[in-house]
Structure formats: C-alpha cells, structure tokens
Amino acid sequence: MIPDDAQVDEFGNPIRPSTEVQGYQVPFGWTAKNVGSCRSCGASIMWTLTPSKRPAPIDPDGRSHFATCPQADTWRKGTGR
Ligand SMILES: [Zn+2]
Known about the structure:
alpha+beta; Ubiquitin Ligase Nedd4, Chain: W; three-stranded antiparallel β-sheet; two-stranded antiparallel ribbon; 2 helices; about 10% helix; globular; binds zinc ion
C-alpha cells in the first residue's frame, strides 16, 4: 500500500519520514552513528547504518553522501591510495 502523499526523489526512490539527529535528517529506519567528515572531499557527514546494517554516510539533508560526494568516483574505484 502506498500512502496518498508518497513522494519519490530524483532517482525514483521513495522519500520516507526522517528523524533529525544532531542536525542531520536521518532516514526512517536508519541508525545514526557518529558525525565525521568525508575522507575524500572533507564535507561534514554523519555515519549511519542502513536498515540492512550497512554503514552509509549521509549529508545534513539526509541524502546519501555516496550520491552527492564530488569525489564519489574515487570511492567506487577503491584503489585506496
Ligand atoms: Zn565526500
């Protein structure tokens, strides 16, 4: 069942209610861990655990930093300089 007010983001993923933790919009069902900074671009992020218990960094607006990081290409390559 899809609520009447269901919305999707630009990727077609459903937007769920979020909880604000230390100024970060933590998506519903995700677990806030610790605030830190991105090793690639230096942005302020919060580390969270997804519902499947995978670590994921988010931006203050709750979007995955994997999606917004300007250095995301270096993450995918995983060369670990
Ligand atoms: Zn980054």
